[in-house]
Inverse folding.
């Protein structure tokens, strides 16, 4: 597996994602229960997030102003 594939398939745990997003682990748990937040992988009792999915989740929420997403016309 090359470096790019390893990075794409890299996974992080709940604590790491909470730190990246600046939220608590409890907030992430609530987001999962409400089917919100980035996609996750459940392995037994463990929850993991693909770094690629986290990056896409953040990119989808990037806004230029409070009222207009980046790339929106007008």
């Amino acid at each position: 597996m090359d470096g790019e594939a390893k990075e794409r398939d890299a996974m992080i745990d709940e604590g790491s994602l909470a730190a990246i997003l600046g939220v608590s682990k409890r907030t992430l748990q609530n987001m999962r229960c409400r089917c919100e937040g980035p996609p996750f992988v459940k392995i037994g009792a463990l929850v993991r997030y693909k770094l690629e999915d986290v990056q896409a989740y953040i990119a989808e929420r990037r806004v230029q102003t409070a009222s207009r997403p980046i790339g929106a016309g007008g």
Notes: The helical segments are 3-9, 14-21, 25-33, 51-60. The radius of gyration is 14 Å. The mean pLDDT is 88.
